[in-house]
Structures are given as structure tokens and as C-alpha cells.
């Protein structure tokens, strides 16, 4: 049903839109699509991420139950993201690490927190069929 022209839509709260732009554009390399007084929309690795200005942001970054991110099909894309995070000294919560080592679901992961404590996880499965 979904094709390459469709985008998943993700919306998260942001306490400061300038901070969101700094993190997502200049930190992670997302492209800013639109900006309004109350929200900013990004091309986030091919999907649509909207940061809505809000006073209701998490007090601390907590991975579960709510987080979002990208499962990279190609190991080199995950490696490139990890290098970017390290070079730009972005705030990590966990990783890079290997999860479920020795099982069919073995994958590498890294979790970040944006300035509004939204948690973003990036991962790459050894078996690319498991990315979904």
C-alpha cells in the first residue's frame, strides 16, 4: 500500500523550536521542510517529523514506552549515523551497543535524546528482513 513517495508522519512536543532546528538539522542532518510560529516540519530520513511547540515535554528522556527512529537496512548507513553522533557530540542515552546478541534478532542500536527529551533510536539488524 505504501510506496516510496509516501511518508510516515511523526509528531512530538518541543519546548523551543530553535533548539529543535539546531538538533535535527545541524545535529542529525535532517532537512527543514516548513516552519511556523507553533511548529517545524522536517524531512527525517524520508519521513515527516513535526515538532510542535508545547509546554508539555517530558521532564526526562525515557525510552519506553514512547520513542521513534530509523531501522537502517544497510550497516554502512548505521555506521555513518554513529560517526555523525560521535563527531557532533549529540546526547546519547544508550549505545552504540548490540542487543539480543546470538539470536536471530541481533542488532546494533544507539538511542539519543533531543533537547525536549524525545527519545530517538537508530538500529541495524544483522538480518535486514527483521527491520520491520
From TrEMBL:
Source species, domain of life: Bacteria
Residue span(s) of domain VOC: 6-125
Pfam family for this entry, one: Glyoxalase
Family annotation (InterPro entries): Glyas_Bleomycin-R_OHBP_Dase, Glyas_Fos-R_dOase_dom, VOC_core
SUPFAM superfamilies cross-referenced by the UniProt entry: Glyoxalase/Bleomycin resistance protein/Dihydroxybiphenyl dioxygenase (SSF54593)
Protein name: Glyoxalase
